[in-house]
Amino acid sequence: MVSRAARVWLPALTLLGVLAVVVRLAARPLANPDTYFHLRFGAEFLAGWSLRDPGSVSTLATREWLPTQWLPQVLMAAVEDRAGLAGVAWLSGVQLVVLTLVVAWVARQRADPVVVAVVTAVTLWACWPALSMRPQVLSYAFTALAVHAWWQAARTGSRPWLLVPLTWFWAMWHGMWPFAVVVGVVGVLAAALHRGLRARELRAQVAVLAACAAAGALTPVGPALYDAVLTVAGRGRFFAEWGAPDFTSPDGAALALLAAPALLVLLHRGADWPITLFLGLGLALALYSHRTMPLAAVTLAPVTAAALQSLVPRAPSSPGRREHAWALGAGAVALAVLAVVVPRTADQPPVRAERLSERLDALPAGTTVLNDWGDGGYVMWAHPQLDLVMH
Asked: Which of 228, 182, 190, 265 is nearest to 67 (CA)?
């Protein structure tokens, strides 16, 4: 009885607990200023902005730009137009539930439910500061899927062609899509080292990698998307999230906790090339910047799951249809609960921003406003008639 509780009910309750925390997070008022930045841009695209030659929300702007996350911006603005901020909060919950289920599924391919429950909870903990209504949340889920696909390809010699349409969609969703190529390079290298230099297999996998790299040029933005991604990356020095990672913070400690078992198992027992190289990729992302720490977490999740499972005498069981149906059902229930809750909890903007509204509404159209950086996102959405200095 205790054994069954440990193997079945404990993982199920843990996943339910993670989903409950996710619902609680998504049900809060939309406080991240970037959410409103995206809403404003989405509204402008719906009103006629061109994807290849967009306009500007300020006469003080000095650089041309191209959109790297226009699709979620349009979706967010359309949802807000029909369901208000509560609808946008629900959309945030969709992203969070998808991320939770993808991390759990990827880990489950390599470990039993008990291990999966622990790894999923710690992974979400490591991603916590980045979990808000921003398109980047799905980038984390897509990275986990790319790691899984290329890991399988490295071990079996398969060709993960499904990553090509995923990368194409990702290139319209968020500017982190080049990580699909980065993960692919690691996967091809792992395949060459793990299975030997099998020319036919490697040519096919390189073709998949090249197709993923080319997918960005086939979006409505066109080939200029490559330069746009590099331009955005070049502005990293202006933003704190591109700063050095802090492993004394709660999310940094969670990431260290996630990496430690895999590293210890590798040093003590050794590991094959896919585990070794994806562990190295995860550690590199963890050390690169605070912004890439969530990418490190989702990259390390399957590695840590496999490492912990190797300490168990028996091989991991295969997930069945009932298990998949239960997980999807739990996610659907979480979103249903969120749909009931958000009209009461997330239908208004942050209190601090709302206090400014009456005075800003009274200003004539075109008034230049020297605003605080943190309020820029909200003000540019709520008061589109104003000419802001910063956002």
From this structure: 228
pLDDT of residue 287: 93
Question: Structure pTM?
Answer: 0.93
* Neighbouring residues of 10: CB distance < 8 A, sequence distance ≥ 6: 114, 117
Q: Evaluate the CA torsion angle 77, 80, 81, 83 in order and state its sign.
A: positive
Contact between 68 and 52 (Cβ < 8 Å): no
Count Cβ atoms within 10 A of the Cβ of residue 256 and give its class: 0-12 exposed, 13-18 middle, 19 or more buried. middle
What is the structure's pLDDT at 3?
A: 61
Nearest-angstrom CA–CA distance, 27 and 347: 10
Structure tokens at 127: 């991603």
Q: Is the CB of residue 57 less than 8 Å from the CB of residue 388?
A: yes
Longest dimension (CA), the chain: 72
Give the model's confidence band at 233: pLDDT under 50 very low, under 70 low, under 90 confident, else very high.
low
* Residue closest to 53 by CA, chosen among 173, 222, 234: 222
First-last CA distance in the chain:
57
Q: Where are the beta strands (DSSP E) in the chain?
A: 368-369, 387-388
- Is 285 in contact with 80 (CB distance < 8 Å)? no
**299 Cβ partners below 8 Å, 6+ apart?**
143, 144, 147, 183, 278, 281, 282, 285
Contact call for residues 142 and 170 (beta carbons, < 8 A): yes
Query: What backbone torsions phi and psi does residue 34 show, to the nearest 5 degrees?
Result: -65, -25
